Write the structure tokens for this entry.
Amino acid sequence: MERKWWHDKVAYQIYPKSFFDSNGDGIGDIPGIIQKLDYLKDLGVDILWISPCYPSPFADQGYDISDYYDIHPAFGTLKDMDRLIEEARKREMYILLDLVVNHCSDEHEWFQKACADPNGKYGNFFYIENRKDDKLPCNWRSYFGGSVWEPLPGHPDKQYLHLFHKKQPDLNWENPEVREEVYKNINWWLDRGLRGFRIDAIINIKKKLPYKDYPADRPDGLSCVDHMLADAQGVGEFLGEMRDRGFASHEAFTVGEVFNEKDEELPDFIGDNGYFSTMFDFAPVVFGGSSKGWYDRKRITPDDYKRCCFHSQKRIGDIGFLSNIIENHDEPRGVSYYIPDGETSLHSKKMLAVMYFMLKGLPFIYQGQEIGMENMKFSSIDQIDDISTIDEYHVARNAGCTKEEALKCISLYSRDNARTPMQWDSSENAGFSSGKPWLNVNPNYNNINVKKQWNDPDSLLSFYKELIALRKNPLYRETIVYGDLIPYLEDRHNLMAYFRKGERTLLVAGNFQKKSQDIQLPQKCQKVLLNNYPNADITDRVLHLKDYQAVILEL
Ligand code: TEU
Ligand code: CA
């Protein structure tokens, strides 16, 4: 694996709408991000991925873009974005934006023009089909529920394809003119000083054509898009072209949101000169998923979590560099999800942090994760904004769940868990906004906030700072960034332990339960590098781990 400038960095995801509101309208904004850059710098992060902040009707919270060359006025202006890029650069930080090009908004002028003249140039920017005796071209189910086909506005005889929401029509990547538009946009942003992109939902750009049905997997007679994607060949041609025509000239850093990739494709995706610099490891995220819906999902256990991480590490080997996460804006809070119910504590939160952060790869921190923000307690479906959660609620109800059962399962997985405003301090609205926040603040903000944790050496935030500092410590950087990952005592229940072996040998061990357990050390411990307890109890090479204790030892 070729070494890259970004391998030893730490990345951080900002969901701008919920990060920091500088003008009291209840919506986080770019000037708000600029005000918090020093906080992020002091935390130690280098690369900032900012979820979409382009003009958008917000049907899917900005993942429905109506202009790729501007900023939504609620977030600020292009000038603000230029200033953010510049202020970040001064602090040796790098900005990534979200590249959302599987689809645009139905309010984008391309789609408006396609509706005005479906047979003209822009009709071919989308997937538009004639309607024949009420039979749909295929039975694919959109990610947010219902058929992927929707009547084309103004043309009852035609319909268009949307794998996501009906306000997110899919762009026709088979049309070279569409691809040219995408590359033009990529270069336009890179010319402005942007360092790169997080690439949204990219596997979806290749459709299996001509349209055909797949086996129905729910009573609605529709079939999850995954079946079609598994069957579609040739996404690599588009991705290679995008790399060469879009990313290459500026050596942009890119992180792909890739699901469903095949093993043999990994070198093409993130090997040397891959389509992307890196991609997220979603193995723990998708674990337990059910084609029936969230209500049928299997909850991940600590042993499952460990196996997912180790499996990904083994699979990727030295091919490339994965990006590791415990949460993002599409997922529940990691501490509420990966730690069994009732066991969330400062110790267990720190343990989870150590476990994922020390894996080989690029660690991403999602806003609020560093202070241990938790899932929201939703008491009614009316408190939910997210379209995906609302759909899953109805899926659960239609499958026979009571209101309470449906609410319980969507509360566990809802994307809104991660989208509640960032908790800065204990003042009104958690210091996020002086106005009414667009989404309710989690009422636990008095206990969980940045201000409270910043000067507390025992806080989760201070612990994250230590973890980041360790990754950058010249004595350990080489081993933490490039050392091999070798699982230790892999089959031990509720223990996650692995070596990082490079210049030095480190042992990372976490007791993923309240009950203490002992492990035999293979070698003498030279030094305790990090510990979520004041002491590491080691006698005769036996390490005694307390309730959710995690340590990083140098052997
Ligand atoms: O997510 C892509 C994706 O595959 C989602 O369907 C994901 O599985 C879903 O959010 C689970 O509820 C990306 C973005 O991260 C997401 O926020 C967008 O909604 C989606 O693309 C469409 O742009
Ligand atoms: Ca604002």
